[in-house]
Amino acid sequence: MEPELEIMALPNKETLEFYDKIFDWLTKKDRDNDNKIVYTFSKDVPKEIIELFLKIRDKIELPISEQFYVES
Question: Running DSSP on this structure, what letter comes out for residue 29?
Fold first, then answer.
């Protein structure tokens, strides 16, 4: 009997965009009381990156909190 192959699904477009354009700007990751991820961005993050994050946050295939921070 041959072993079963596990097929991995590709992440959606927003998740790929998150890792491609946003992830490198993150400096810290914590969890909130609901066990959702709270990200902290680098202090020199461009405004466009924050705007993109806000635009796609709800479609990213990760449990992301509504909260986020930018280092001061």
Answer: E
For residues 22 and 15, what is the distance between their CA atoms, to the nearest angstrom?
Answer: 10
Place of tokens 């596990």: 6
5 has pLDDT over 90:
no
**What total number of domains does the chain contain?**
1
Predicted model pTM: 0.85
Task: Note the helical H segments in the chain.
Answer: 13-17, 47-56
Average pLDDT over residues 15-35: 98
Domain span including residue 47 = 11-55
Q: Under the phi-then-psi rule, with left for phi > 0, alpha for psi from -120 to 50, and beta for the rest, what region is 64?
A: beta
Looking up tokens 């709800």, which residue turns up? 58
- Report yes or no: 43 and 72 within 8 Å, Cβ to Cβ: yes
Residue 67 maps to a domain: no
